Amino acid sequence: MASSLCLLNSWAVPRAAKQALSSLVLLHKFPSSRNSRAFASASVSIAADNDIRSSDLVALEYADLNLTDKISKELGHVRIRQHVNPLSSSFSVPAPVPDWSEVFRDPTLPLIVDIGCGSGRFLIWLAKQNPDSQNYLGLEIRAKLVKRAEFWAKELALNNIHFIFANATVSFKHLISTYPGPLMLVSILCPDPHFKKRHHKRRVVQKPLVDSILSSLMPGGKVFIQSDVLEVAVDMRNQFDSEDLLQHVNTVNPSMLCDDEGWLLNNPMGIRTEREIHAEFE
User: Which domain of life does the protein's organism represent (predicted)?
Assistant: First the structure.
């Protein structure tokens, strides 16, 4: 089933003539647990136990962050609404621009932005791995997730990560245009698929956001896209491919192994996203 695939598309790099940039796009297709290829031997062996849930595998993947006790003791259980309407008037106001020198120790470092960062674990893990070389910014439309992620980052004493409650379509360029350093990478990982046709306009990857991203990226900057719904993955890929500023990574870097359709065979980020784990387990 297409919905059981986790597809990662595009480290995309702009190469507009006015900037004379090089460009590339990374694509990655994830096998599901129903696929004939095993997704990870450790996960498969754990999943064989009927008492194991995908949430347990997520906890195992991010165990070194030691986040569970910290959040439960301080904030209690955080119940999150799964779907929101980004076109609602309540999300139409741009998010306030932070004082970058207050939220980052060095605001001139290259910036990685995760649009729809969800719980923030993925971004927190990356920030912990690269404390002195990159800054990380998570944009999330659900305020409770932002509050929890900010609490986690503070507890871990990370000074290279920040989370903002924001509608990326409205706030992305407004925020990033003020950042002192270069925009290195933008990731959009398993966004709300909004399955109903009349709701497709709610999908986050639309031309206005694509234009904002491409106009903000540094020379050699990248876009990384992931979805566990094939239709959504292809739609996002098409949105970026419609611009002549992008080039797929396998046409530039043969060492990035891809299938016949150009999807990467391995996740290049160093850790699986939470939805990626859930999709493999299902």
Answer: Eukaryota
- Classify residue 98 by its DSSP letter: P
Displacement of CA 203 from its chain's centroid (Å): 14
Residue 57 and residue 43 in contact, taking contact as beta carbons nearer than 8 Å: yes
Q: What is the pLDDT of residues 95-121, one digit of tens each?
A: 899 999 999 999 999 999 999 999 999
Delineate the domains of the chain, giving CATH numbers in brackets.
Answer: 2-81+102-281 (3.40.50.150)
Residue 239 — φ and ψ, nearest 5°?
A: -60, -40
Quote the radius of gyration of the chain (alpha carbons, Å). Answer: 18
Calculate ∠ Cα 187-192-195, nearest 5°.
135
The secondary structure element, H or E, covering residue 125 is: helix 121-129
Catalytic residue chosen out of the listed positions 51, 64, 69, 192: 192
193 contacts 176 by C-beta, under 8 angstroms? no
192 included as an active-site residue: yes
Its pTM stands at: 0.78
Q: Which amino acid is at 257?
A: L
Predicted pLDDT at 238: 87
Q: Is the Cβ–Cβ distance between 183 and 153 less than 8 Å?
A: no
113 within 8 A of 176, measured Cβ to Cβ: yes
Say whether pLDDT at 76 is over 80.
Answer: no
Alpha-carbon gap, residue 59 to 173, rounded angstroms: 33
Sign of CA dihedral 31, 185, 213, 147: positive
Single-letter residue type at 55: S
